[in-house]
Amino acid sequence: MNSKREESSKGHFASLKRKTFMQMLLITAAAPVAVFLLRELMRGQIGDRIVDVLKFVFRLDWFSASQIYQYVFRNNLEFILLLLTLLFLVIISWLFISRLFAKYFEEISAGMDRLVEDTEDRIVLSPEMAYMESRLNAVKDQLIRRKKAAQEAEQRKNDLVVYLAHDIRTPLTSVIGYLSLLDEAPDMPVEQRAKYIRITLEKAHRLEKQINEFFEITRYNLQQIRLEKETIDLYYMLVQLTDEFYPLLSARGNTAVLRADENLTVYGDPAKLARVFNNILRNAAAYSHPNTDIVISAEEADGSVRIRFQNQGDPIPPDKLAAIFEKFYRLDEARTTGTGGSGLGLAIAREIVTLHGGTIEAESEGNTIAFTVTLPVSR
Q1: Measured in Å, how far apart are the chain's first and last C-alpha atoms?
Q2: Helices 190-222 and 130-184, interaxial angle, to 10°?
Q3: Is the CB of residue 298 less than 8 Å from the CB of residue 261?
Q4: Which end of the chain has the smaller Cβ count within 10 Å, N or C?
């Protein structure tokens, strides 16, 4: 990949190299012309001017000044011309470098300054720097996309906090209201008292769930996930998972069906992977159609274990499917009581799976939704 990029950069900089070569060729060609002109001038008018200068400076007669010119300048003409030629090349080369390369470096420097500007204006360089221009603009585009993604994630988080703060008031108000009724009417009929206690307990559980979501947001932002890996009995972990979710699934007539080899193992952090599977199954339970199966299958192939959670539910649009693993993203915009969550479960699952060197993907075809986790079998 790097070699292809280097070859591409060499090809794109060909125009710049051609321009540099042509200018250096002109400088080299100009040197012999300059030597010829200097030679002729030294023999002609310049020679006479040198004799006149010697006569004036040292108060010499014409013959003496001519002798000095002959021995000092005329006899050493080749050496003097060589020195003048070298001086000419140095001066011209310095002017060339200062004008040409300094210009390109200044353009690149200005382009890099534009990278951090809070604008979407394109970076424009000389035609010879077209490849560098495209690279800088690609980096700028990527920075803009990352900034927008961070702003959107931050906005989703802020909206979520506002939603949760608003939603907490409803169950809290109900809890206080029903407890006040129980306190004000000690002789309330037993059936009515039991009804009020049951409603109060339901609202209290709802309140607890929302408070836990607040803690989840705090933990996600402040805690760095660290893995403590070991060989895990994957089949036993999935059996435990289905047992734990039995009450939640049975309430809507759903059933978890496990299809996996009893000897299946995987190398990873048991607590963190249990959280991954818990988040995926909780999501499947929330969005599954009532009275349908949630199929959990696992198999080993090519040194990896593939765990798939498949359920029947409403189709997920492609745009939402692409964003389903983002932080604070929730599929249900209406924030219904049954399915509204913090939007962190799948984002945390993806981070944990990535730290394990695996992948997690979501698919939606018709009414079939599937989440697939791929993990390495061994260390």
Answers
A1: 27
A2: 160
A3: yes
A4: N
Contact 308, 371 (CB under 8 A): yes
Cβ neighbours of residue 343 closer than 8 Å, sequence gap 6 or more: 156, 160, 327, 328, 329, 330
Helix/strand/coil for 336: coil
Q: Which residues contact 273 (CB under 8 A, 6 or more apart)?
A: 232, 237, 266, 352, 356, 375
Structure tokens at 161: 């906090």
In the chain, what percentage of residues exceed pLDDT 90?
A: 15
pLDDT of residue 161: 67
Count of residues for the chain? 379
What secondary structure letter does DSSP report for 288?
A: B
Domain boundaries 149-222, CATH class: mainly alpha
Residue 124: its pLDDT value, please?
81
Tokens of 94: 């310095």
Q: Calculate the alpha carbon distances from 317 to 153, 295, 324, 331, 349 in Å.
A: 20, 22, 10, 10, 21
Give every residue of the chain whose pLDDT is below 70, as ranges.
1-21, 23-24, 27-48, 50, 69, 73-78, 80-81, 93, 95-102, 128, 156-157, 159-167, 170, 210, 213-225, 327-344, 379
Tokens of 208: 């607890």
pLDDT of res. 122: 82
360 contacts: CB under 8 Å, gap ≥ 6: 276, 325, 349, 350, 353, 354, 371, 372, 373, 374
In angstroms, the CA 103 to CA 136 distance is: 17
Q: Does domain 230-376 have CATH number 3.30.565.10?
A: yes
3-state secondary structure of 185: coil
Domain boundaries, the chain: 2-115, 149-222, 230-376
- The token pair that represents 211 in the structure block: 């408070």
At 13 the three-state DSSP class reads coil
Write the CA distances from 177 to 89, 184, 207, integer angstroms.
95, 11, 14
User: Rounded to 5 degrees, what are φ and ψ at 227?
Assistant: -100, 140
